[in-house]
Amino acid sequence: MRLEAEKHSFLNKLFTALIASNILLLAMDSLLWLLNGCCGQICSTIYSGFYVLYFISNPIPPFLWTLYADYQVHWDEKRLRKLIYPLLAPVIVIGFMSLISLKTGLIFYLDERNIYHRGQGFPLMAALCYTYLVYTFIMVVRNRRIIGKKIFVPLLLFPIPPLLGSILQMVYYGTNLVWTGMTLSILIVYTHVQNRELNTDYLTGINNRRGADQYIRDKIRNSNSERTFSGILLDIDNFKGINDRYGHQAGDMILKITADLLKKSLRKDDFIARYGGDEFIILLDINKFVDLKKSVDRIKDNLSDYNASGNNAFEIRLSMGYDVYGYDSGMNVEQFIKHIDALMYSDKEIKTAKQTGGN
Question: Which fold has domain 209-358?
């Protein structure tokens, strides 16, 4: 569990660095256009220095994007460490080109009025930056079979806004739309990928408590006398004992298996979340208790089949509480969760009493 948390933390750090570098370049870009044509030697020196820093920083966002996308696809930090050094080559080359531009005007130069002009090496610098986006695009396409559709499309579309921005920038000299395009790409990724990460349980891959609370809140808000929903709250019996006896790796494996069993037992559109620890919550568009009971029975049947297979190191036992949300009850999120939680513990107590009586 800790390893999975570290992976997602590393991914979030890469994304945060990508945002920060893009903000920095947007700010520098605005400052440079304000300084364009300023008078005096001191101003010229400051202006030239800022341009060197600006162009040194240009490959940083695409470089970070490549690291982020590769990690999002492969989830392999060792692979990323091996890639960093060859991927740094364009950054180093552009840094060198930027520094010598002060003397040679390779990427940029300032005329006698301190007006900025592109140098002959500017297209090469731009091409080196775009090698990152091209590489990432090819990598995403090649690995499309192992990437979920919800992630694949945003990763694939990321290069398009900055590419369009650079084309417009070449057509309309004096505008700078590359970093605006990059900002749009980052927003697309955040909306479709990063925001999803915030609502996803990193261990099981299903929704987490944050996503569940929001989902229930929306369901209650949209309920009426003719349309409501149902909830199932369940936990794994003796989960702490399994963790204590066999270790947390065994506990993690059971959580993953349970999540898979629930997905197998339910419809594609049913909402499943890990609500905390060994607790799971399921939300279904079901108005009648008899239909809800059928869903519960499917879970029990699949669980029985799993335990009866004899191919597993551990048996999994679940306690469940479930009910249809009563629109007229006026229950809020916390009250409805408390209601099905009480039913779940009642189920657990009944099973404990039977086991005790059987002994």
Answer: Alpha-Beta Plaits (3.30.70)
CA–CA distance, 205 with 198 (Å, rounded to integer): 11
* Cα distance from N-terminal residue to C-terminal residue, the chain: 36
**30-82 confidence digits (pLDDT tens):** 888 888 878 778 888 888 999 999 999 999 999 999 999 999 888 888 899 99
Which sign, positive or negative, has the C-alpha torsion 52, 54, 59, 63?
Answer: positive
3-state DSSP assignment of residue 108: strand
The CA distance from 342 to 347, in Å, is 9
Q: From residue 46, how far is each of 23, 28, 32, 52, 109 by CA, in Å?
A: 21, 12, 10, 10, 13
List the structure tokens of 81.
């460490």
d(CA 309, CA 315): 10
CB 251 within 8 A of CB 239: yes
> How is residue 148 written in tokens?
């979920």
In angstroms, rounded to a whole number, what is the distance separating the alpha carbons of residues 142 and 137? 9
Domain boundaries, the chain: 2-198, 209-358
